[in-house]
UniProtKB/TrEMBL annotation, chain A:
Species for this entry: Sediminibacillus albus
Cellular compartments per GO CC: plasma membrane
Chain ranges of the Cytochrome b/b6 N-terminal region profile domain: 5-224
Keyword set includes Transmembrane: yes
Phylogenetic placement of the source organism: Bacteria, Bacillati, Bacillota, Bacilli, Bacillales
Keyword Ion transport attributed: no
SUPFAM superfamilies for this protein: Transmembrane di-heme cytochromes (SSF81342)
UniProt keyword list: Cell membrane, Electron transport, Heme, Iron, Membrane, Metal-binding, Transmembrane, Transmembrane helix, Transport
Recorded GO MF terms: electron transfer activity; metal ion binding; oxidoreductase activity
Principal cellular location given in the protein's record: membrane
Function: Component of the menaquinol:cytochrome c reductase complex.
Record membrane topology: Multi-pass membrane protein
Complex formation: The main subunits of the menaquinol:cytochrome c complex are a Rieske-type iron-sulfur protein (QcrA), a cytochrome b (QcrB) and a cytochrome c (QcrC).
GO biological process, one term: respiratory electron transport chain
The protein, known as: Menaquinol:cytochrome c reductase cytochrome b subunit
């Protein structure tokens, strides 16, 4: 039955080459923890991806309750935290995942760095990876404001003050992020929300795709 | 891929009519103990992922995500703190050589050099040798960078009393009271001088505190209305005893509605 379904689709769209590209790739001995336990360092990249998936899924569920508005943002989070079934777990996953993903990214970066795995021909993939790190930090920064509690509000005020003091582009950047040259308020919250759930994830997905395609094309770096 | 003459397509599409067999590659010819990703290795990865997820969920269940009180822009004494992974930058900007007139150095030049160096690492460290011993400069710069980030984070976090912060900022749902303006007591409230100082919605003002969130009984309120309390002079109420009763009951009801 499944085979027939597969054949039916395959005849029309020729998915076998695509499927073989995804499924057929080697896992060399030196990266396989089943053969060399020290190869667990190669897990950090995969775990980063895993936590990113957790972040995407839990974030999608959070937006079912979250309201990006200064009157209701905090109340919606409070409601989610205290009234909604498993709301505390879902928000907890998103909150802790945001920290764990940074830790995993850091470990993954260190693994690649100390193994010198970014050397020719993998320079481009290293740069894409560093950009991914920056995007993740941006997601952390914008997500911090969304619960609209005191720590969110005042930390964002400090961030925007720092952005404002940058020469030449500072004030324009602050206005772009906060929606107003002076007020941290309703506009700031909606902008941070838009950046957090649309702009940065879009960039994240695009760069992740490039990151993975490059790994597949170039193969994993050899043993030292 | 087969090209050129003799190609057969499915219908009028560009899908080739020739089917390719869907069988995995043979990895026995690969060097060492190479394994196929699908399905052999993926199953093992799945197990590692499951163990990781269990640990992660334990963390989530044991420590609920923190939430402080609703943002209050007038809370002047609040000391802002960023999330832990920005603490090192926050700490760095406190130093004399990185703040005030040197702000540009602290906020742009130094982090720009560090992160720019990280971004361009493959071009700065461009010799072919991959071993740590073959690239002492790159490795020692990275170790220096890591040590400074760890140290700065420690310096920033050390002075913070996390438990006290959490205690002082517990989330509390702001009480919302319903003002029933048709209540006979509200009319009394309006007709006497109460409304001038305590406000239309009992919210208080410059001269008087709010009448919501108070803990007085009906009799106590009657006494206060006639004899005053604190800065409130006596003799503010000039109505009948019945009106006084209505007024006190109204204020108590408003307070009960907010609980």
């Amino acid at each position: 039955m499944l085979q027939k379904l597969y054949d039916w689709v395959d005849e029309r769209v020729d998915i076998t080459p695509l499927w073989r590209d995804i499924a057929d790739h080697e896992v060399p001995e030196h990266v396989n923890p089943a053969h060399h336990f020290s190869a667990f360092v190669y897990c950090f990249g995969g775990l980063t991806f895993f936590v990113t998936v957790i972040q995407i899924l839990s974030g999608m569920f959070l937006t079912m309750y979250y309201v990006p508005d200064i009157e209701n943002a905090w109340r919606s989070v409070y409601y989610l935290q205290t009234e909604v079934a498993h709301g505390q777990i879902v928000r907890g996953m998103h909150h802790w995942g945001a920290s764990v993903v940074i830790v995993m990214l850091f470990l993954h970066t260190l693994r690649v760095f100390f193994q010198g795995a970014y050397k020719k021909p993998r320079e481009l993939n290293w740069m894409v990876g560093v950009l991914l790190f920056f995007i993740m930090l941006g997601l952390g920064l914008t997500g911090y404001l969304l619960p609209w509690d005191n720590k969110a509000y005042f930390a964002t005020q400090v961030t925007l003050e720092i952005a404002e003091k940058v020469p030449f582009i500072g004030e324009a950047t602050k206005t772009l992020l906060a929606g107003d040259p002076n007020i941290v308020g309703a506009q700031t919250l909606t902008r941070f929300f838009a950046i957090h759930v649309f702009f940065l994830p879009a960039a994240l997905f695009a760069l992740m795709a490039v990151h993975f395609i490059l790994i597949r094309k170039q193969g994993i770096s050899g043993p030292l | 891929m087969h090209k050129g003459k003799g190609m057969k397509f499915v219908g009028d599409s560009r899908i080739t009519a020739e089917r390719k067999p869907n069988i995995p590659k043979d990895y026995s010819e690969y060097p060492g103990r190479t394994e196929a990703f699908w399905p052999n290795f993926l199953l093992k990865e799945w197990l590692v992922g499951a163990v990781f997820l269990v640990g992660f969920l334990c963390l989530t269940a044991a420590h609920p995500a923190p939430l402080e009180g609703i943002a209050d822009p007038t809370a002047a004494g609040y000391i802002p703190l960023p999330d832990w992974y920005f603490l090192f930058l926050y700490q760095f900007l406190k130093y004399e050589f990185a703040s005030g007139p040197y702000f540009v150095i602290g906020a742009i030049v130094a982090p720009g050099l560090a992160f720019g160096g990280l971004l361009l690492a493959p071009f700065l460290d461009n010799r072919p040798g991959r071993k740590v011993s073959q690239r002492p400069i790159a490795v020692s710069l990275m170790l220096l960078g890591m040590a400074s980030v760890f140290w700065l984070t420690y310096e920033a976090a050390e002075h913070v009393n996390w438990e006290q912060r959490a205690e002082e900022n517990t989330p509390e749902l702001p009480t919302e009271v319903e003002i029933d303006e048709d209540h006979p007591g509200y009319e009394v409230y309006q007709n006497n001088s109460c409304i001038q100082c305590h406000g239309e919605s009992l919210e208080g003002g410059a001269a008087a505190p709010p009448l919501t969130d108070i803990d007085h009984s009906v009799d106590e309120i009657k006494d206060i209305a006639q004899n005053g309390i604190g800065d409130m002079p006596p003799g503010q109420f000039e109505g009948t005893d019945e009106e006084l009763q209505q007024l006190a009951e109204f204020i108590v009801e408003v307070n009960e509605s907010g609980e």
